[in-house]
Structure formats: structure tokens, C-alpha cells
């Protein structure tokens, strides 16, 4: 006799998903699955469209990370053109991506995740949200919201719109940076740097009290994949080469041109989920589990390359072994360090004499029938791979979404959390789902800040629906949390 | 100078009828009606709280899943409600009003205009039912704007 607990869908993450937990005859968790139950079908939708339209189309997949798609898609267009874009265009694209990382990470930390650990697991669930945070720590909440606004402003000042700016295009960008906007950003940076340093201090002070979460929210050995700079393998977010390291810090893949990504990444399909499961090919599936995103980027790089963020990176790594931090709970910590890195990098770019140049675009035509563009989205490495015909119409599009890269690891995390928080379920009588189990499972998934709108699609709100099944598939208990 | 009337139309323009809110906002913006501002967005975002707090009246425009072909637009007045919560890809307009109240100590009068949607699959066209709802929503918005102007002038 075994039972299955289903949480459907997960609140405060994007898209539609549910969680199943399988119990064995002794009432212990034998397995757990994170299901994505909506079909994306987006690649099919793009077929027949001109590749030059793809940045604008793919940007509309998601309201939170449109910039990631715009940039990866524009880079794919550069590859189809076979051109090198002007240096200033590349720097401006980088600046927009750094604004994107700042706003997305700030949303994840201040609006979604921090209420859990700043207000405490035992606090009223109805108040464990951004409103509770505003009440409990109004200065921090306002600072976090302002920090997100700054990231959005960087995007808007460069692209003209906060959401979906059709600014990055194959061959460069449409508009240069104005002197007025340049000055505005430079003036704002010190205040935002102060905010993130204050938040980092707060988070680090709390970490020792979060030992259970650090040890059980996805704390396991895996590979890590991300972009690093071509020169020195430093932290990278827009260009560079692919690097893979293992749980001991050994470099398995180094300096791989990201256009050759499919030599090392395979995509498995599981019957329980529409979300594909990418894996590291040389190790096979599912042993080739790897993680991407903030945690992975800090694990694969040699350094960040900016003084404040590098000092934080050294502290961060001291909490791991061999320079590798294994717990997915530390994604939160890594996000804060990446915000700091983003602000420092924006400052460097703004001080670059070339940044105000008006040479920001080259024009081209279809010179290659396949193009690949890879960029680091806030949630991890994003791959766009298009095949086009002689007229530049999309024949085939393949998008490996940041969240998808983490699919195997998210499943493993759910299992680890379930095994820690669900123990000795009485198998006689009527089994019940305890409220105390729902919070850590949701929070564990939130460590990855998954974007299921990108990896699938979402229309509407997501209440949480928990269902418990017996071995015969009968529902024995259900819980719904709106 | 009265505070502006703000129209926020939201939804995914890649999911057929789900994007009707954005279409409404774009049309309202094209009217260039003095004192009226429109935002077309994939979703409500925390930073919209600032614009909401600064408005005299807010009209949220969204799609809802029609249960029958006879369903029409639904107009309801909204009150701030912090229990609705805010997630990255979905924020209830009542939660947005509560956020405006919490952050900027002001939540204006607000309405939700919900337009029936029959098709939410990938696509960029509106169904006939949603097209009818779009026309009805625009008529309602013109009335709302006219009334708001009259009340503002009486208040001056």
C-alpha cells in the first residue's frame, strides 16, 4: 500500500504546476515529482515568422523576463546575419540585461521569498507576504521596491518601455543611450548599492538561524552550468563561453562556444510533465543533472570581477566546500550578490567612454540558415536556436528555458523536502495532509524562482490544491489554499 | 487639475482573447483624451502601485473565461484587499490597490471591467464574443471618463 500527496498548483511561482509526493507502505516518502501540466507549444507558433520579429514575439512569452528573450533572440539574429555588432551596442545590451537581473532578483527576494524567512515560518500565512513585510519592516520593503524600480528604469531608459521594448534587434540596438538618461542612472546607483549591501548584511545575519532550510532545501551534489567570460572565466551574463563544473569544483567543460550547446546538453521528456528535462549528455539522464541560475553562475566563475561583489563571493564560498555551494536555498543569497555585481557592472559601463556612441547597429541579411543565441536570464542560461529558410522565415525554433534547465534539480529538491518534512505518516485511519508541510515544499520550489510562464504558459491565478491518494489512486485527503 | 483617470489593460497578447485588456488600453491611449492615461501590460506589476496611487480613478480591464456564448462584460467596483496577494505573474487588482495603500497611503476608486474570452490558446486574434466585449468595454469606458470629467469639474 502506498499513497500519493499532490499539491496543485504551487502558489507564488509562475505558471501552472503541481507536486506529487509518494508514500511507501511504512508511511515514508519514497519519491516526489514536480509536474508542469500546461503545454507551451510556443516553438511551433513561431514557425513561418521572420526571424527579425522573434525578439518582439518571444518577449511576449513572459512579463517578468522579456529582456532575456529579447537579448537571446537578438543574438540569434546576429548569428544568422553572421555579423559582429558594434561595441557600444554590445555594452548597451549588457546594461539592459543587468537592469533585468536587478529587477527580477529584487522581485524574487523582496516580494516573494523574504517574507518567509524575515517574518518566520510560524507567522500567519495570510500575512506572510509583501504586505506583512511592509508592516514589519517598511524601510526594507520600500528599499526593495525602489531597487526593483531602478532595474526597471534601466530597461525603460534604454528601451523606451519597461515591458517588451523592441529595442535589441539582430545587428545591435535601435537607439543609443542619451546623456540625460546616462546621468540619471549614474546619480541613482549609490543609493541602490547601499540598499543591496544593507540587505546582504541582514540576510547573512539570518543564515545561521536557517540551518534546517539550508540543509534540506535542495542540498545535494550536482553539476553547475553557466556562461563565463572568455578571458579568465569570470562571472558572465550576456556573452562568453559555457562552463560546467562538478560538485567538487572540477571543471568538466571549459571555454565551449555556446553555439555548440547541443554537444553537451540533451533534453529528456518525462510522462508526468510537459516541462522538458535537460541533462549533461556525457553523464546521461538523469545522472547528468545540473543547475543553472545565480547559484550556478557563482559556482562556475573564477571571480566576479568587481570589488564589492568579489568580497561577497569569498564569504559565500566559505559556506560551501571546494568553492562550491550545494544548497538551493543559497539561490537567495546568490541573487543578492548578483544584484550587487549588476550595480557595479552598470557603473563600469556608464563610465566607459564608448557608452554614448551613436554607432549601435549594423544591418545584414540571411547569411546562415541556423543561428544560436545564448544569454544568462535571471533564472539561468537561456538558449534560442533557430533554423531559417533563404528568406529568413523560421523553419524550426528550439528554446531551452532557464527554468527548464533546473527541472531535474527541482524534482530532487521536492523529494528532499518531502522526505524531511513528511515522516511516519499513519497508514491506518484517514491520512491527513498537514499544513506545516505545504510551506517548505512551496518555499523549496521558490528557491529556483521558476518561471513556468516561460517554460509553459499561464493564464490566471494559482490557488494551491493538495490531494492525497492511496495506492489504488483514490483521493483520501485534499487541501486547497487560495 | 484633477488627478488623472487611469486605464490598465492587462493579459497575454500571445494567448488570443487573454490579450483583450491590452487592446482596450491601446485604443484608449489612441483617443488622447486629456486627463486620461492608459497602460497596456502583460500583467499587473508591483511598480504599477505608484501610478495607481496617483490616479483619481482606475479602471482595470481584463479577460475572464466565458461560460457561455451569451456572457457579456462584467463591471464591478473594487476595494483594496491585501489577502489576495501578489505573485510575479499574477496580481489581483484588489491586491494592487492594497499595495498602493500600503506604500503610498492612497487607494483611489477603482473598477474592474472584465471581458468574456472564449479562446485562450496560442494566437493573436480575438474571438467574435471577445470583439463584442471589447466594443462594450470601450463604450463603458467613455461613459466612465465623461462622468469622471463632470464630477471633477463640479468639484473644482
Strands ordered across the widest β-sheet of chain A: 3-2-1-15-16
How many distinct helices of chain A?
15
Quick one: how many beta strands of chain B? 7
**Largest β-sheet summary of chain A:** 5 strands, antiparallel
Overall average pLDDT of chain A: 87
Radius of gyration of chain B: 15 Å
Dominant shape of chain B: globular
Tell me the number of strands of chain A. Answer: 16
- Major β-sheet annotation of chain B: 5 strands, mixed
Q: Overview of this structure, please?
A:
The complex is a heterodimer of chains A (482) and B (156). By secondary structure, chain A is of the alpha+beta class. Chain A is 41% helix and 18% strand. Chain A is built from 15 helices and 16 strands. Chain A has helices at 42-46, 54-59, 66-81, 87-119, 130-136, 138-159, 179-207, 211-216, 294-300, 307-318, 331-350, 402-405, 407-421, 435-446, 452-455, and strands spanning 3-8, 17-23, 29-36, 168-169, 172-173, 223-228, 241-245, 251-256, 265-268, 277-280, 290-291, 370-377, 380-388, 394-400, 464-469, 475-481. Chain A has a 5-stranded antiparallel β-sheet with strand order 3-2-1-15-16, covered by helices on one side. Chain A has a 4-stranded mixed β-sheet with strand order 8-7-6-11. Chain A is globular, with a radius of gyration of 22 Å. The two termini of chain A are 31 Å apart. Mean pLDDT of chain A is 87; it is low at 7-16 and 455-463. Chain B has 4 helices and 7 strands; from the N terminus they run E-H-E-H-E-E-E-E-H-E-H. Chain B has helices spanning 20-31, 48-53, 93-104, 128-155, and strands spanning 5-10, 36-41, 57-65, 74-78, 86-87, 90-91, 109-117. The radius of gyration of chain B is 15 Å and the shape is globular. The relative contact order of chain B is 0.23. The A-B interface holds A 11-15, 41-42, 45, 57, 60-64, 66, 107-108, 111-112, 126, 129-131, 134-135, 141-142, 145, 148-149, 152, 162-164, 449, 451, 453, 457-462 and B 12-15, 18, 41-43, 45-47, 65, 82-83, 85-90, 92, 98-99, 102-103, 120, 122-123.
Amino acid at each position: 500500500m502506498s499513497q500519493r500527496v499532490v499539491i496543485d498548483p504551487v502558489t507564488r511561482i509562475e505558471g501552472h504546476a503541481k507536486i506529487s509526493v509518494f508514500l511507501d507502505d511504512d508511511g515514508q516518502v519514497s519519491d516526489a515529482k514536480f509536474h508542469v501540466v500546461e503545454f507551451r507549444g510556443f516553438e511551433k507558433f513561431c514557425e513561418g515568422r521572420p526571424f527579425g520579429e522573434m525578439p518582439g514575439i518571444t518577449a511576449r512569452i513572459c512579463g517578468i523576463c522579456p529582456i532575456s528573450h529579447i537579448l537571446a533572440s537578438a543574438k540569434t539574429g546576429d548569428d544568422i546575419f553572421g555579423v559582429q555588432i558594434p561595441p557600444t551596442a554590445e555594452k548597451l545590451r549588457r546594461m539592459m540585461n543587468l537592469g533585468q537581473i536587478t529587477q527580477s532578483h529584487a522581485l524574487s527576494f523582496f516580494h516573494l521569498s523574504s517574507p518567509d524567512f524575515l517574518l518566520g515560518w510560524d507567522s500567519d500565512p495570510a500575512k506572510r507576504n509583501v504586505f506583512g513585510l511592509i508592516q514589519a519592516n517598511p524601510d526594507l520593503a520600500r528599499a526593495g521596491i525602489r531597487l526593483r524600480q531602478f532595474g526597471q528604469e534601466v530597461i525603460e531608459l534604454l528601451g523606451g518601455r519597461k515591458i517588451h521594448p523592441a529595442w535589441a534587434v539582430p545587428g545591435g540596438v535601435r537607439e543609443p543611450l542619451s546623456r540625460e538618461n546616462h546621468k540619471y542612472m549614474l546619480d541613482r546607483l549609490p543609493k541602490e548599492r547601499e540598499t543591496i549591501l544593507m540587505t546582504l548584511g541582514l540576510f547573512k545575519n539570518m543564515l545561521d538561524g536557517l540551518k534546517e532550510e539550508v540543509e534540506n532545501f535542495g542540498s545535494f551534489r550536482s553539476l553547475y552550468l553557466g556562461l563565463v567570460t572568455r578571458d579568465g572565466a569570470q562571472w558572465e551574463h550576456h556573452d562568453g563561453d559555457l562552463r560546467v563544473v562538478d560538485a567538487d569544483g572540477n571543471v568538466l567543460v571549459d571555454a565551449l562556444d555556446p553555439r555548440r550547446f547541443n554537444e553537451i546538453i540533451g533534453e529528456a521528456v518525462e510522462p508526468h510533465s510537459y516541462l522538458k528535462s535537460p541533462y549533461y549528455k556525457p553523464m546521461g539522464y538523469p545522472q547528468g543533472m545540473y543547475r543553472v541560475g545565480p547559484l550556478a553562475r557563482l559556482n562556475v566563475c573564477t571571480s566576479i570581477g568587481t570589488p564589492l561583489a568579489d568580497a561577497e563571493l569569498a564569504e559565500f564560498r566559505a559556506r560551501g566546500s571546494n568553492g562550491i555551494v550545494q544548497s538551493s536555498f543559497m539561490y537567495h543569497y546568490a541573487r543578492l550578490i548578483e544584484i550587487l555585481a549588476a550595480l557595479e557592472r552598470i557603473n563600469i559601463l556608464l563610465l566607459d567612454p564608448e557608452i554614448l556612441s551613436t554607432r549601435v547597429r549594423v544591418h545584414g541579411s540571411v547569411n546562415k540558415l541556423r543561428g544560436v543565441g545564448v544569454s544568462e536570464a535571471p533564472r539561468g542560461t537561456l538558449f534560442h536556436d533557430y533554423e531559417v529558410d533563404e528568406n529568413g522565415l523560421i523553419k524550426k525554433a528550439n528554446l531551452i528555458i532557464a527554468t527548464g534547465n533546473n527541472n531535474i534539480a527541482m524534482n530532487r529538491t521536492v523529494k528532499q523536502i518531502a522526505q524531511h518534512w513528511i515522516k511516519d505518516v499513519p497508514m491506518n485511519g484517514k491520512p491527513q495532509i498537514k499544513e506545516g508541510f505545504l510551506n517548505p515544499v512551496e518555499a523549496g520550489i521558490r528557491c529556483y524562482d521558476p518561471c513556468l510562464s516561460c517554460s509553459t504558459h499561464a493564464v490566471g491565478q494559482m490557488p494551491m490544491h493538495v490531494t492525497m491518494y492511496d495506492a489504488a489512486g483514490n483521493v483520501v485527503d485534499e487541501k486547497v489554499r487560495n | 487639475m484633477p488627478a488623472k483617470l487611469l486605464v490598465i489593460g492587462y493579459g497575454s497578447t500571445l494567448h488570443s482573447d487573454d490579450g483583450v485588456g491590452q487592446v482596450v488600453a491601446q485604443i484608449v491611449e489612441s483617443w488622447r483624451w486629456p486627463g486620461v492615461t492608459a497602460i497596456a501590460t502583460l500583467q499587473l506589476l508591483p511598480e504599477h502601485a505608484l501610478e495607481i496611487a496617483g490616479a483619481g480613478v482606475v479602471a482595470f480591464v481584463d479577460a475572464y473565461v466565458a461560460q457561455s456564448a451569451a456572457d457579456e462584460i462584467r463591471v464591478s467596483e473594487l476595494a483594496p484587499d491585501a489577502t489576495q496577494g501578489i505573485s510575479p505573474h499574477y496580481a489581483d487588482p484588489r491586491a494592487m490597490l492594497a499595495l498602493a495603500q500600503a506604500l503610498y497611503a492612497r487607494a483611489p476608486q477603482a473598477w474592474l471591467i472584465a471581458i468574456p474570452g472564449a479562446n485562450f490558446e496560442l494566437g493573436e486574434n480575438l474571438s467574435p464574443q471577445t470583439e463584442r466585449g471589447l466594443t462594450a468595454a470601450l463604450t463603458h469606458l467613455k461613459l466612465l471618463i465623461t462622468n469622471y470629467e463632470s464630477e471633477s469639474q463640479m468639484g473644482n
